[in-house]
Design a protein that fits this description.
Blueprint (H helix, E strand, L loop, with lengths): L2 E4 L2 E4 L17 E5 L4 E5 L6 E6 L14 E6 L7 E9 L10 E2 L3 E10 L2 E10 L3 E13 L2 E6 L9 E9 L2 E6 L3 E6 L7 E8 L5 E11 L18 E8 L2 E2 L2 E9 L5 E9 L10 E8 L2 E9 L5 E8 L4 E6 L2 E7 L7 E8 L5 E13 L9 E6 L8 E5 L10 E6 L15 E8 L5
Antiparallel strand pairs: 1-2, 3-6, 4-5, 5-17, 6-16, 7-13, 7-17, 8-17, 9-10, 9-16, 10-11, 11-12, 13-14, 14-15, 18-24, 18-28, 19-28, 20-21, 20-27, 21-22, 22-23, 24-25, 25-26, 27-32, 28-31, 29-32, 30-31
């Protein structure tokens, strides 16, 4: 689901356990590099995205010499002897608005596990004259005990330019699941201490490759986890509430949101979505982000349908937000917001016939650093102007500002044929604004 503008205000169309039993996903430190002077790679500040791209300058087709045709990023420490990696491979070469993983005679984006010279494997999406002459197909290339292993799907055997790869490994083998639908393996490859890389490659001189690896997350303990970054000093914003996310049907969600008037927004909360390959219909903690209209998100770990306290803090000087589940920081997110800020308590359901039954208790917002002119809240919560397709927000205890409780309930109706929360605002929202020089 994505964020959309309603009446000039950003609202969410997509989003977005008990802490003693939840296991949150890890990210780990990554180092970018290139073996070709024409190719480049960057990593995000929080190590959950890798972009590898550009036009190859070296000569010699891949497979005929040294590995001089690729760029990407590698985890800084070897992984453990077992674990799971989730990563989405996005084709981001988009001339004329039609995207692919590159152009020219050949290109590929891949995730490589390298244990030793006798045991390694790359899982990727490839365009190659021999195996996929007019499109993209799945590539599995590696060795087990020095003997080749792997293969390719039939020519043009995979379409689209965004695919979730789930890779699970033990000391003796590794498996791949694509989009939570097709499972391959296990492949009997030793994985006692693998180095893991996210790479893009061009087949020959002048070929373009362009893959963005997003939502990189490892199961807890499978890598050396990067710590959550908490900036020094007081946050500009602290927004907390206890969420109870519930409903019926294919999808529903509950989250708290902050946004500005410049197409920037951040939501944290819990989502249940049977159409999501990451969560597969279980409740999960999730953040979703819009920056200048560009949408990203990340699933963080299992949640529950019981009361879950969450807190969002944002440090203006650092452009950093931190998501807390209870008192535990579970994610840091690089986000630029331009005060004046606005705040939502929001519930969603996915398609016609789905229902939501969310509660939000003890909402508390502290905002601003120039008081009293630009801090605190203005007016009271608006629960009447942002309710769509049968869903509605209700202030259940009548508190005008802090301490307000809400429900978001209803069953979705009236969506056009094929409509979902990805394409329409399917929400019940309570909204309030930051106090801003008398308004």
């Amino acid at each position: 689901m994505k964020l959309k503008v309603v009446a000039g205000i950003l609202v969410s169309v997509f989003v977005v356990s008990n802490l003693q039993t939840s296991v949150f996903a890890d990210v780990t430190s990554l180092s970018p590099y290139s073996w070709d002077p024409g190719l480049f790679a960057t990593t995000s500040r929080y190590n959950d995205t890798v972009h590898a791209w550009a036009q190859r300058k070296t000569s010699g087709a891949w497979g005929t010499g040294s590995v001089n045709y690729q760029a990407g990023a590698t985890i800084n420490s070897p992984a453990s002897s077992s674990g799971t990696l989730n990563v989405t491979l996005n084709g981001t070469y988009c001339p004329g608005g039609i995207c692919s993983y590159g152009s020219g005679t050949g290109y590929k984006g891949l995730v490589q596990f390298w244990n030793d010279p006798q045991n390694y494997v790359a899982f990727g999406l490839i365009h190659d004259p021999g195996v996929s002459p007019t499109g993209t197909t799945l590539m599995i290339e590696g060795a087990s005990g020095g003997k080749p292993i792997g293969g390719y799907w039939g020519a043009n055997g995979i379409t689209g330019t965004s695919h979730l790869f789930t890779l699970s490994w033990t000391a003796s083998g590794i498996s791949l699941k694509i989009d939570n639908q097709v499972a391959l393996g296990p492949y009997a490859i030793a994985m006692t201490h693998p180095s893991i890389s996210f790479l893009a490659a061009g087949r020959d001189t002048g070929d373009v490759c362009d893959t963005t690896f997003t939502n990189i997350s490892f199961s807890s303990g499978s890598v050396t986890a990067a710590p959550v970054i908490i900036p020094a000093g007081n946050p500009y914003l602290t927004y907390s509430a206890t969420l109870t996310e519930s409903g019926s049907g294919t999808g529903h969600s509950a989250y708290i949101n902050t946004h500005d008037a410049n197409n920037n927004a951040l939501s944290i909360g819990i989502q249940t979505d049977s159409a999501s390959p990451e969560s597969n219909g279980s409740p999960y903690y999730i953040w979703e982000l819009v920056q200048g209209g560009i949408f990203t998100y990340s699933y963080l770990g299992p949640a529950s349908h019981g009361p879950e306290p969450v807190t969002l803090k944002w440090w203006k000087a650092d452009n950093t937000a931190v998501f807390y589940a209870g008192s535990t920081p579970i994610a840091d997110i690089s986000v630029n917001l331009v005060p004046r800020l606005f705040f939502n308590a929001e519930g969603n359901a996915r398609i016609n016939g789905d229902s939501v039954n969310d509660t939000f208790t003890n909402t508390q917002i502290s905002v601003g650093d120039t008081c009293p002119t630009y801090c605190g809240l203005n007016g009271s919560w608006n629960t009447s102007s942002f309710n769509f397709y049968g869903l509605s927000a209700t202030n259940t205890n009548g508190q005008a500002q802090n301490g307000a409780n809400f429900t978001v309930t209803g069953t979705v109706s009236g969506l056009p044929a094929g409509g979902t929360w990805d394409t329409n605002v399917v929400a019940g929202i309570g909204m309030i604004a930051q106090y801003w020089n008398g308004q």
